[in-house]
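Narrative summary of target 7.
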Amino acid sequence: PSKVLNVHFFNPALVMKTVEVVKGPHTAKETFDAAFAFVKSIDKTPCTIEKEIYGFVVNRIFSALTREACYLVDMGIAWPEDIDTAVKGALGHAMGPLETLDMTGIDLEYSVYMEKFRNSGDKADLPAACLATHYGKGEYGRNQGKAFTTIQNNFCANLNKSVLQNPEKQQKKKIEGEENRHAKGNRYRTNHTRRF
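Modeled conformation, tokenized:
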């Protein structure tokens, strides 16, 4: 166990420079130092994670960002491409959160949230309604030529304008139908989950 640790690359690994090097409670200092040095030797940027935690650092921050972005979509607050434009312009991100979901896979994000929910039993850990809806329809993102922004913009364009202009009404509608949408999405999970 003292010679085991997590070295977390990001997708696509040949392009992304940052690598999380994670100290487990069992990991020897020599093991960590060797892994850290290896990451530097292949021209990557190692980032030390002092303790193991679900999602490490980057994915936890990304998850918080995408959850809020999906909430804004669900409430009809902003169009997906406008959310991405705002995040890229104001926060300096190379890609917006919903563009990134297109690349990494809506099905992967859905599965991550469902796994968290199964472990916690907390409904707050359920995937956003828009994720569950797209997952249930088999719309997984760029790998299928069905980008989140295109799917969701078409979806929003068919909504009644009064609903889009009334977040409280939209939230009530979301809450009432949330469990049914998640149940539908979960029925598709067995047949559509990708292998990574």
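The first strand starts at residue 6 and ends at 8.
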